[in-house]
């Protein structure tokens, strides 16, 4: 009986957690829908009645009196509500929904994302003027009669208000903003991490940039497209969160603590296997800087770090480690190992020639330290040569 009871209790807990998540999700959708409608009303009355910014302050005061226990009615929040509705008028919302459905690909590629977002942006921008006219007509109806289904179905309703504030503040480009919304859902990003990724130009580094690899020639089409899509250039190492008063000891301690974490920007699907992974080949010892396993591609990924600019011989060294990993780590169920070289600068033409003729899947990317580190602390950070030595010694 005790065993059956514990199983029953476990099922109850699971169902309660599911219900709690659904409740929170539903509440978020309703709150965002409310904001969307409120924003429409503000815009409509400002445009038709000639009301200026002062109406925001007056609405804030009266709403706080009427709903003293409810947050979200400060002048600042009401201005965000207005902007939220302005940026996502009904025609734009419909385009967002259309583009979102196309982005939910089983195997996304860099080119497919560029195409979807480019086409979406072109059509959306062309409709912005028309959208205001259509909204005026819609708002002449009672708010209750507005069709809510496009909003409920949109990706807008699936992320939190705080994420929307970050996106409205930091990303004016509508197509990029849509991509970040999907990225938030896929990666489960907090608002702070989202802000950091936007500031680091994640979209440009992953979707816009030309990437140097031979994946198309060495991997099956499905895997090559996805491997190229998740690759970034450059990689940003956000491994130190330093305050203005941080001293050298503090920075060094954080570096030692997060020496592997700063490479986890590799993205979703990577499982850390080890650093300085030892291989004995022909009686000699060799050490691969970092080894990951990619759960979606079902393969090992060997990462080599160079604290200098790329040299042609680096590709041969990485190719060696990929060969070794295929023999020592790969099982019959795994796909062929991928190699990724991270360096402090590269000549793209030289890198492309270096990968020609190699049959293993290899990529080359730049990396740089985090832009969020204050300039005055840069001189206190250990040199990148020291980082490389630390990998070698662990």
Automatic annotation (TrEMBL):
Pfam families: DUF1016_N (PF17761), YhcG_C (PF06250). Keywords: Endonuclease, Hydrolase, Nuclease. Residues 230-382 form the YhcG PDDEXK nuclease domain. PANTHER family: NUCLEASE YHCG-RELATED, UNCHARACTERIZED PROTEIN YHCG-RELATED. InterPro entries: PD-DEXK-like_domain, tRNA_endonuc-like_dom_sf, YhcG_C, YhcG_N. Residues 13-89 form the YhcG N-terminal domain. This is Predicted nuclease of restriction endonuclease-like (RecB) superfamily, DUF1016 family. It comes from the Bacteria. One of its GO terms (molecular function) is nucleic acid binding.
